[in-house]
UniProtKB/TrEMBL annotation, chain A:
Membrane topology: Multi-pass membrane protein
TM annotation in the entry: 12-31, 36-55, 61-79, 91-109, 156-175, 196-213, 243-264, 276-300
Species, as recorded: Pseudovibrio japonicus
Family the entry assigns: Belongs to the ABC-3 integral membrane protein family.
Lineage: Bacteria, Pseudomonadati, Pseudomonadota, Alphaproteobacteria, Hyphomicrobiales
This protein's name: Zinc ABC transporter permease
InterPro entries for the chain: ABC_BtuC-like, ABC_TroCD
From TrEMBL, chain B:
Domain of life, source organism: Bacteria
Listed InterPro entries: AAA+_ATPase, ABC_transporter-like_ATP-bd, ABC_transporter-like_CS, Metal_Ion_Import_ABC, P-loop_NTPase
Similarity-based family: Belongs to the ABC transporter superfamily.
Matching SUPFAM superfamilies: P-loop containing nucleoside triphosphate hydrolases
Name listed for the protein in its UniProt record: Zinc ABC transporter ATP-binding protein
Pfam entry (one): ABC_tran
Length: 313, 274
């Protein structure tokens, strides 16, 4: 039991919380047809992360998060500026800003000698999920022991706070996010500036991306911004229900992804385990596939059946 | 500057030409508005004032800038020059008193929302930041759906409505906004006969309640039946005023140029004799 608590549970928590943070915000990205914004933002924030790291000298710190948020705001403003001054289309402006800022991040990383620490390419891709351990856990009762909980890895605590922030953001601005995503013109005319709301959303996305990024890597971050939201969209026409379902899909991908990665190969008789972050993304993709096939209204099978009925009638 | 005073002024002065009208009585006034897309001008120095409490059609050929006129006047797209006043106030302050109904293609109908969700959005301004709609707001939204004959579809996902039904949901949303000025961008485009009838009824109702309604309209055949006033655009202001005096073949010829066959013009202007 204590092995599960000390090694498996922290990884499951880390993976699930990272998935949840990205999965919830992903709903609005998908609805705004900005699904790849999560991907783009996770590149843009690199210079911010590195500068934050230089200030604070520790990974997973709030300084890195602040740097990331600032970098995201800077990127959005820069895109707007290039679009207006250069009179280029938004896609091109984004492409220029994202690649340039990522490259700038790489240069700062190289020149300041931070490259050797935690911010290397492998971690950026796959993250560091399995390294989360909770040595102070000995029994189940530690789960509600405040003192033991406070010794949870910092990255988990941070993700927990980030998730609370994101949930508060969505609950508080639910109506505003909804109207500015559906009809930006009406939103603007009613005084809910879609520009500011969009900027706030991007900043939250940057915060979620950074919090999740150091734990689970960019593959999972990108998958989680899109898959749970797209899965949930297949299952309901109600945005509130969709948000809840996407949360469930994120958490279940985190849980089952880790379990499959850690124990799946063992059950098949192999002596190794596979990357948990990669497996979580695979499970998220599988959930999406299942939803596309079997969803009650939008699933391929039900649509076929309805067509057949029409054909017979 | 423009050499002619906007028609709204004329109308209000019909009985007493000496007394000047306070700007606070002019629901919707645009001064010298110029808009360009990518350096190509779409609207040139358009000035116009909408007659209060009237149903006005904005007509003109394709590309005349009719939709652009509404969007630029509301500040929804950038303009090179010009200003809008709502009852004398600058547009930022006056937006609350306006309901704008965009073209149906302006939104994503696959959005996870039901008809009543969309109508509720019209009440968001009233509800204010951070608060969630209450049961009272839902009832108001339902009443608005009822007045366009859509109460039975309240809980239908909007993508599963027909084009006409979607347009009626948009209209119900505008009603929910309870505005004094209504600006509608082609509400009749591609709708069925039942919807067209429902929309006309609602527009007349709005005007009967003293509200000012401006509608971008495409079908010249119905202008005479539906509207009391028109604004003719073709990139510039061509003419505006009551239908009887303004909806003439000369004005139409000016706005449409060669794009209307002379037989069409004859048909439309003959009706003016009646």
């Amino acid at each position: 039991m204590d092995i599960f608590l000390q090694f498996d549970l922290p990884s499951i928590l880390l993976g699930s919380l990272a998935a949840l943070a990205c999965g919830l915000l992903g709903n609005f990205l998908v609805l705004r047809k900005q699904a790849l914004m999560g991907d783009a933002i996770s590149h843009v924030v690199l210079p911010g992360i590195v500068l934050g790291f230089l200030f604070s000298h520790s990974t997973g710190s709030w300084a890195m998060m602040l740097g990331a948020g600032a970098a995201a705001i800077f990127a959005v403003l820069l895109i707007e500026l290039i679009r207006r001054v250069g009179n280029v289309e938004p896609g091109a402006a984004m492409g220029v800003v994202f690649t340039t800022m990522f490259a700038a991040g790489v240069v700062i990383l190289e020149r300041t000698g931070t490259a050797g620490v935690h911010l290397d390419v492998e971690h950026a891709l796959y993250g560091n999920l399995e390294s989360a351990i909770w040595l102070d856990a000995y029994s189940l009762s530690d789960l509600w022991n405040w003192q033991a909980l406070s010794t949870l890895p910092e990255s988990i605590q941070q993700l927990f706070v980030v998730n609370l922030l994101i949930i508060a953001f969505i609950v508080l601005f639910f109506k505003e996010l909804k109207i500015s995503s559906f009809d930006p013109l009406l939103s603007a005319s009613l005084g809910f500036s879609p520009k500011w709301l969009g900027l706030a959303l991007i900043v939250m996305v940057a915060v979620a991306a950074v919090a999740a990024f150091s734990a689970v890597g960019s593959i999972l971050v990108i998958a989680m911004f899109i898959c749970p939201a797209a899965t949930a969209r297949m299952l309901t026409d109600n945005l509130k229900v969709q948000l809840v379902l996407s949360g469930i899909a994120s958490l279940s991908a985190g849980l089952f992804g880790y379990l499959l990665a850690a124990f799946g190969p063992g059950l098949l008789g192999y002596e190794f385990s596979v990357s948990a972050a990669g497996m979580i993304a695979v499970v998220a993709g599988l959930q999406q596939l299942l939803a596309m096939l079997f969803a009650p209204h939008y699933g391929v099978i039900m649509r076929r059946r309805r067509q057949k009925k029409h054909a017979v009638a | 500057m423009h050499d002619r005073s906007p028609s709204g002024l004329h109308l209000l002065h019909d009985t007493d030409a000496t007394k000047s009208v306070s700007p606070a009585d002019l629901p919707f006034t645009v001064q010298g508005m110029t808009v360009a897309y990518h350096h190509k001008p779409v609207l040139w120095g358009v000035s116009y004032s909408a007659p209060k409490g009237c149903l006005t059609a904005i007509i003109g050929p394709n590309g005349a800038g009719k939709s652009t006129f509404l969007k630029a006047a509301l500040g929804l797209i950038p303009k090179l020059s010009g200003e809008t006043r709502i009852f004398g106030d600058p547009i930022e302050k006056g937006l609350k008193r306006i309901a704008y109904v965009p073209q149906r293609s302006a939104v994503d109908w696959d959005f996870p929302a039901t008809a009543i969700d969309v109508v509720l959005m019209g009440l968001y301004g009233q509800i204010g930041w951070f608060r969630w709609p209450s049961r009272k707001h839902r009832q108001t939204a339902l009443d608005c759906l009822k007045s366009v004959g859509m109460q039975d579809f309240a809980n239908r996902q909007i993508g599963q409505l027909s084009g006409g039904q979607q347009q009626r949901v948009f209209l119900a949303r505008a009603l929910a906004q309870n505005a004094e000025v209504y600006l509608m961008d082609e509400p009749f485009a591609g709708v069925d006969a039942a919807t067209e009838k429902a929309i006309v009824t609602v527009l007349r109702q709005l005007v009967a309640e003293g509200r000012t309604v401006l509608v971008v309209h495409h079908d010249l055949e119905t202008v005479r039946d539906y509207y009391s006033h028109i604004l003719l655009l073709n990139g510039q202001h061509v003419a505006d005023g009551p239908v009887e005096t303004t909806f003439t073949s000369e004005n139409l010829q000016k706005a449409y140029g060669g794009r209307l066959a002379s037989t069409q013009l004859d048909g439309l202007s003959q009706a003016s004799g009646a």
